[in-house]
Amino acid sequence: MFMGERLAVRQERAELALEIGRKICGRCGEAKELEAFRPRKDSLDGRRGLCRVCEKAKATEPEPEDRERFARWQKREADFDLLVEKMRRELVRSGIVED
Ligand SMILES: [Zn+2]
User: Rounded to the nearest whole angstrom, what is the distance from the C-alpha of residue 62 to the centroid of ligand 1?
Assistant: First the structure.
């Protein structure tokens, strides 16, 4: 697809969104009121591509492809915490630091 065609499709979609006052969220796929999308100045329809609910969810939940990586990261964090706690106990036991 040419860039021009893609832009035309996007423009058509934006015009439709403004006309019917709704647009389809790029994440949950639901057709929601424009107010459900946060404003975005440089967007054709003046709104972001994801609804507010999805933007919030995206900020707190990892994407499916990131989930495994996130789980590994969490495990490393937990291991690190355990290591820190173990070291701290060692230091307390040898009297280097106070509990
Ligand atoms: Zn959504």
Answer: 15
